[in-house]
Amino acid sequence: MIRLPAVALLLFAALPARGQMQACATATTQTDMNTCAAGEYQKHDAAMNDVYQRLLAKLTDPKQKALLEDAERAWIAYRDKQCAFQTSNAAGSVRPLIQFGCLDEKTNVHVAELNRQLNCKEGDPSCVR
């Protein structure tokens, strides 16, 4: 017979957010795992907002700023809807773990995208100036 914490750990291990999994490896109850996953997501969301604000401040062209702001709003809507879809079959106490794992994964990818624009190499034509 498999105990609930073991099943939850298996589900947690299946999440793509590997950094989150490592950070929450000591969580033993579902509540602890959910709390840890929420904290990891909130930490990475704050980092994303920091990178976004630095990129926005770097831009001097008002049109580029407006495009970035519009893109960010669209990305947030995409992230939220995609994670709602991806977790639509999850139920019960494990749902927050899966939801925060999805949000965290997408946020970490987006941080990398924003960082690429923020730290773009001189002469790279795919970068905003």
Summarize this entry quickly.
It is built from five helices and no strands. The protein is mostly helical and 129 residues long. It is elongated.
Low-confidence stretches: 1-17
CA(first)-CA(last) distance? 59 Å
Q: What fraction of residues sit in β-strands?
A: under 5%
Let me know the number of strands.
0
The CATH class is Mainly Alpha
User: Roughly how many Å is the radius of gyration?
Assistant: 17 Å
Number of helices: 5
Mean pLDDT: 86
> The CATH topology is what?
Substrate Binding Domain Of Dnak, Chain:A, Domain 2
Q: How would you characterize the largest beta sheet? A: none
* Morphology call: elongated
Helix percent reads: over 70%
Order of helices and strands: HHHHH
Count of domain modules:
1
The chain-level structural class is: mainly alpha
> What CATH architecture do you see?
Up-down Bundle
Structure description:
With 129 residues, the chain is an all-alpha fold. It has a single domain (4-118), classed as Substrate Binding Domain Of Dnak, Chain:A, Domain 2, CATH 1.20.1270.180. 74% of the residues lie in helices and 0% in strands. It is built from 5 helices and no strands. The longest helix is centred in the middle third of the chain and has 29 residues, at 30-58. The protein is elongated. The model is unreliable at 1-17 (pLDDT under 50).
